[in-house]
Each structure stands twice: as structure tokens, then as C-alpha cells.
Fold:
Amino acid sequence: MNSIKKYIAEVIGTFVLVTFGCGTAVAVGCDHWFGCGYILTALAFGLVIVAMAYSIGNISGCHINPAVSLAMLIRKQLSVTDFVGYVISQLIGSTLGCVVLGILFGFDCGFGANQIQDGWENGSVGAALLAEVVLTFVFVLAIIGVTSKTENTAVSGVVIGLTLTLVHILGIALTGTSVNPARSLMPAIFAGGDALSQVWIFIVAPLVGGALAALCYGFLEKKDEDKAE
Structure:
């Protein structure tokens, strides 16, 4: 029963992330050259994390992101069974969010899907992969670091939310910022076209970035005596 409650929490959290994060991108536009839509979208994604961290964080840990779940699996803070359950739940939540966006804005709204941005002069598949790996690495490293000590509990949601806002401020102009395969896969399926053909970038790179963050933090937190052994 506890696992089911965790999975439901992950469905809800990912649903809110897609509905409000991607929904804001659709509603206000996300042109990084003009207008306030760029910052509003970055803030929307960050504020969703703050809200969800303090509402479902004590139930599921508020992963709402397969890259985060993979990092916790690597750190042995999540079982293989729960990892699979979390990812399925996150995809269900993302799907429900896309359905709501389609009803609100029309099923041709683009769904805030990620793709290499037209205004990115040096944009390429390789550059997009690098960008998403780096952005996800920073985001997941912050999550692991701030949640590794119980005394940080009161501020962890704010720190994680602000970090997601930070990576969006840089990443929107490059890839639209994914750092989350669940946030990218279902919007791409609903949007189709270039978004769907490029979606593999936003699945592979965040998972690599999340895994690297887990491995890096594991190395950094080891005590000298542990290394000596």
C-alpha cells in the first residue's frame, strides 16, 4: 500500500509539473529574445518543484523525474521495483498533463515540447546532448546534496526549485530545457514532428547527467578512511 501511495504521489507531481510548467510555456510563449515568457517559464518550473516538494515530498520524495529516480537507484536509496514503478507513474502523470493542455489550448499547441532551438547559433545534436547532460548534472547534484542531510529538510524544496529555475534560465535558449525524460517524452509524442524525432536526446542526456551526478556525489562524500580501504 505504501508503494502505491508513492506511485500516486509521483503521478500527481509529474502531472502538475507538465500542466503548469509546459502549460506556462504554451500560454506565454518562450522566446528567449523578446518578452517575459522566458523568465516566467523558468519560474513556473521552479515553483512547481517548490510546491510539490512540500506537498508530496514526504510521501514519495518528489522525484517526478526519471533522472532523479535513476540517481537514487544508483545511490541505493530506491529499489529496482520502486524505480520501475516511479518511472511508469511519472509517465502517466506526464500523459495526464498533456491531455489537460490539449483540452485547454488545443491539441496542436506544441505542449512545450523540447527540441534544439532555432535561435541557437551553435545548436547541434552533440551540443544539445552536452547541454542536457550538464544541466541535469547540476540539477541532480543539488538534489542529492541538499537532501543528504536531515537538517536541510526545511529548505530543500526551495533550493531544488531555485536550481531548476537556474538551469531553465540557461537551457531554454538551447533546448527548451528538459533535464527530465518524463517531462519530454509525452509532450513530444503529443506534439509530433521535430519534437518527436529529437526526443531521444531528452531521454538519454538527462539519464546520463543524473547518473553522473550520483556517481560524482558518491565519490565526493566518501571519507578518506573509506578510500584507503
Notes: Residues 7 and 207 are 20 Å apart (CA to CA). The first helix runs from residue 2 to 28. DSSP finds eleven helices and no strands in the chain.
